[in-house]
Amino acid sequence: MNSSALIRWFEREARALPWRREDVTAWQILMSEIMLQQTPVARVAPVWEQWVQRWPVPSAMAASSQAEVLRAWGKLGYPRRALRLHECARVLAAEHGDSVPTDVDVLLGLPGIGAYTARAVACFAYGQRVPVVDINVRRVIARSVHGTAEPGNPSTTRDLADAEQLLPRTRARAAVFSAALMELGATVCTARTPDCARCPLDDCAWVLAGRPEHAGPPRKVQKFVGTDRQVRGRLMDVLRESRGPVERVRLDQVWLTDTGQRDRALHSLLVDGLVEQTEDGLFALAGEG
């Protein structure tokens, strides 16, 4: 892969995402990375801007309640991420001097921080030479290096080794290259409609092979309508919009088509710690019960 060509393309074409501004801190980049997991950029950006103003440092978030963070999370989806980020803020404020560590292994020890997020923060916040692999990176590598239309099943060891081999030797170029690789997969080398005419890589193995079709089973499209996730979201909407515990009947009204599914969704929210039940049987967001 021609890393120089990719970096030059990135310097010209990179989106002006708010968390790429020069004044953004490691904590603010960490918030963006948590929000961006399974959530499109367009939905994340306005919420992230609000969070940067409200919680510019971990201690500011740590001083807020779980319910406040869950309300501010809004409709970004997968709200357990918000609870884990709140927990992470408390640890950073209490044990790390209100700052985000630079070391990947230390980052991995924080609540809610997995392999991808730890490396993303080390790379994008601190410019470290570490491989950063998400689905976009896996797709670009699968096509440009291995000549396949789609990446295979995720493998942390293999995927990191693939990305590591491509990194430029110098630390500064490696960090930019990692961002460029991800950007290419997000905007040009997309899953459904890759725009090969705009790709800066003239040595893509997939294109040189004639863009062969994916040999495996078709990708499953994750549906949302009618799923437990949709029901959980509606239940959370009621609690976010209230300013205190609500009666069960308020929650029952959000999903009448399948009461068993509604009950299952509510139970899962209780198990996940997103919702609490008071002694008198009311329901509230975490921390308000």
Automatic annotation (TrEMBL):
Cofactor(s) listed in the protein's UniProt record: [4Fe-4S] cluster
Domain of life: Bacteria
Protein known as: A/G-specific adenine glycosylase
HhH-GPD domain boundaries: 35-187
Key words, A-Z: DNA damage, DNA repair, Glycosidase, Hydrolase, Iron, Iron-sulfur, Metal-binding
Gene3D superfamilies linked to this entry: Helix-hairpin-Helix base-excision DNA repair enzymes (C-terminal), Hypothetical protein, domain 2
InterPro entries: DNA_glycosylase, HhH-GPD_domain, HhH_base_excis_C, MIG/MutY
Record bears the keyword Hydrolase: yes
Organism this protein belongs to: Rhodococcus kronopolitis
